[in-house]
């Protein structure tokens, strides 16, 4: 059996053993890979089963990153498969870390693919800010904290390692990904994008704007990460 050297995303972001900060390129690769895996659960598995699979417990502790190629691997699929074969899709079947749980979970509403989208948005915010939802100055509301702070300065929110010395073009891309994370963490699940839409936007890195509840791409050229 081939040995794969992996660390959890939580270890890479916050562990004592980390030697240097993750580059922007590595962070966006992890974001894209995680979005691709969730898109497969929601869209690809639909063909093989009677509906999409819901992960139900996405957080940095169960995203493993291959240290050779920086590709993310998702773990903790027991919840997803058990939910798919259960007639009960309520939040009671999920054992989710509260800080990454969507409002749907906290209100005991049925869990859907949009519940995974919210948790993904929380992970994306952590990738960009290097702060846990439980960090002291975040006060348990990561998305709300980011929304409040960016009105004053993006520099107060984003990890200086990827933002402070970035070029103007790179800063625009980082801000776009931050905006996407905030769309994923909207309170109303119906207004969150699907994981397929999230993946497409991350891969293409097009500019986009928000019109009402819709995510509207601009006419700008496709940019490379």
TrEMBL record:
GO molecular function annotation: ATP binding; protein kinase activity
One GO cellular component term: membrane
PROSITE patterns membership: PROTEIN_KINASE_DOM
Residue ranges of domain Protein kinase in the record: 1-208
PANTHER family recorded: LEUCINE-RICH REPEAT RECEPTOR PROTEIN KINASE EMS1, LEUCINE-RICH REPEAT SERINE_THREONINE-PROTEIN KINASE 1
Name of the protein this chain belongs to: Protein kinase domain-containing protein
Organism annotation: Araucaria cunninghamii
């Amino acid at each position: 059996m081939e040995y794969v050297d992996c660390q959890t995303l939580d270890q890479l972001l916050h562990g004592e053993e980390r030697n240097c900060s993750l580059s922007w390129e590595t962070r966006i690769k992890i974001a894209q890979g995680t979005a691709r895996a969730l898109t497969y659960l929601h869209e690809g598995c639909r063909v093989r089963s009677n509906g999409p699979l819901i992960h139900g417990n996405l957080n940095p502790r169960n995203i493993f990153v291959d240290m050779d190629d920086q590709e993310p691997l998702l773990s903790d699929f027991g919840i997803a498969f058990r939910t798919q074969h259960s007639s009960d899709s309520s939040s009671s079947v999920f054992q989710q870390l509260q800080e990454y749980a969507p409002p749907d979970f906290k209100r005991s509403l049925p869990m859907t693919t949009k519940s995974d989208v919210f948790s993904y948005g929380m992970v994306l915010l952590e990738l960009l800010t290097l702060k846990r939802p439980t960090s002291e100055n975040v006060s348990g509301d990561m998305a709300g904290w980011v929304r409040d702070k960016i009105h004053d300065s993006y520099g107060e929110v984003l990890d200086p390692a990827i933002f402070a010395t970035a070029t103007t073009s790179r800063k625009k891309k980082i801000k776009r990904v931050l905006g996407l994370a905030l769309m994923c963490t909207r309170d109303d699940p119906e207004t969150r994008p699907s994981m397929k839409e999230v993946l497409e936007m991350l891969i293409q890195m097009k500019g986009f704007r928000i019109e009402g509840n819709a995510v509207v791409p601009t006419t700008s050229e496709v940019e490379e990460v």
